[in-house]
Specification:
Blueprint (H helix, E strand, L loop, with lengths): L4 E6 L2 E6 L4 H7 L23 E5 L7 E5 L10 E3 L3 H17 L4 H9 L21 H9 L5 E3 L6 E3 L14 H5 L7 E4 L2 E4 L2 E7 L6 E4 H11 L10 H17 L4 H9 L1
Parallel strand pairs: 1-5
Antiparallel strand pairs: 1-2, 3-4, 3-5, 6-7, 8-9, 9-10, 10-11
Helix pairs in contact: 2-3
The structure holds FE2/S2 (inorganic) cluster (FES).
Length: 269
Amino acid sequence: MSEKVVNLEINGRGFQAREGMTILEVAKREGIPIPTLCHHDALEPVGACRLCMVEITHPNWRGWKGLVTACLYPVEEGLQVTTESQEIHQVRKTILDLLLARCPDAPYIQKVAAEHGVTATSFKKNEVQTVCILCGLCVRVCAVKGCNAIGTARRGIRREIAAPFGMPPPDCIGCTSCAHICPTDAIPWEDVNGVRKIWDQEFEMVRCVSCGRPIMPVTQLEFEAKRAGISPDYMTTCPACSQQKTLETIRTAFTIKRPASEDAVEAAS
Ligand code: FES
């Protein structure tokens, strides 16, 4: 079945898009900037941060306009989208003002806020020290990996990302996906002497069979191997050594001398 294509406008320019795409996906494809904090292309959007607000209207809506989150709103035939206006800027500034109040010491939030003209919060600053903006990317990536080791706990202003019962999460494999996807570096972790520390747990690291460098925690190796349906032994070489081995194999393959009999046939012809 062929995909349905819809026509829409963004900032007065006409575009075509596949039905089901979001406004953010189309804007990204066309190089139209829309700020985001809780979005990642590899994960389902949830509309947590509201920073990607844009204005929409439609010729059939008799002048009605509305603000929607671009990461969630699907495109439709005739949709008219505006990504920059005074009202939109004001909404984004208010969101960043609130985020600065929650995380006054988060460098990334300070940077994004400053880019939108907000250099200090006009709200009461959070007394609890945190750089977590509750975007939920860490929880979502952990779920997509199939671990579900962390989640959200409590409600309202006490809401936080946490492990079950505040204990070291038993389902954590120490992969650090949560820490790497976090836009504000809110999840601390470290690798020291072949041991990884994250979420109040220590994970023994597997070392590369060629160079001896730590690659990943034993728990992650076993998890990934089981998921891929392969022996863990296939994953005990680090990326650098694997690449080196591949290069050597290619070089060897291209320098193999042709059998003398083939040279003789070529010379005789
Ligand atoms: S990026 Fe759309 S709500 Fe956060």
